[in-house]
Amino acid sequence: MIRQSKKRDAAKLMAVVKAASSAMLAKGIDQWDEIYPNSDVLKDDIGKGELFVLEENGAIKGMVVLNEFQDKEYADVCWALTEGRQLVVHRLCVHPDYQGVGVGKRLMAFAEDYAQRNGYSSIRLDCFTQNPASVALYERLGYAKAGTVTFRKGVFYCFEKAISSNP
User: Fold this and answer.
1) CA-based nearest residue to 53, from 1, 130, 8, 7
2) 8-34 per-residue burial string, b: 16 or more CB within 10 A, e: under 16
3) Which member of 3, 69, 114, 152 has the greatest number of CB atoms within 10 A?
4) How far apart are CA 15 and CA 21, in angstroms?
5) How far is C-alpha 94 from the geometric centre of its chain's CA atoms?
């Protein structure tokens, strides 16, 4: 089940982030650390009602943040899809115990359904260029590269996908 997160989820979500960060670091992917994303970021996401979790049998298997916030760096990207409203995906994270079994795909399907139900015309997101599994996921799901941005940890691909207006 995918549901909106609650305040009581904060500690479990931070544990998911820490586990995912450690697993990425073990693969040589230095994307997340103690600075980002931290518990204050997650608590803010929860408070705004923007963080969704995939939970089954009491275990949070993954999470995603959905909102309209675009980092200032997005302004320099040559987006192909500029009409209408854009939903932005942030902090997609799958616990390492559940990676490779479709959790990320399910969270992105939820994001696309959410976008369609709420009148968005496209989805935007960024993905660390040094995270091949994430890059491959977005490409398999039909997201197109629109350019790159540079954040504290390095270069990130910007992806976008049109959302059908037919519910």
Assistant:
1) 1
2) ebbebbbebbeebbeebeeeebebbee
3) 114
4) 10
5) 10
The mean pLDDT values, 10 residues at a time, for the chain of 167 residues are 97 95 90 84 97 96 98 97 97 96 98 98 97 96 98 94 78
Provide the edge-to-edge strand list for the sheet that holds 154-162: 2-4, 51-56, 59-67, 86-94, 122-128, 154-162, 144-151
Which secondary-structure segment (H or E) carries 104? Answer: helix 103-117
pTM listed for this prediction: 0.94
Other CB atoms within 10 A of residue 2 CB? 19
Q: What are phi and psi of 92, to 5 degrees?
A: -65, 125
Residue keyed to tokens 């980002």: 36
- CB 46 within 8 Å of CB 11: no
Q: Give the up-direction half-sphere exposure of residue 167: CA atoms within 13 A in the CB hemisphere.
A: 4
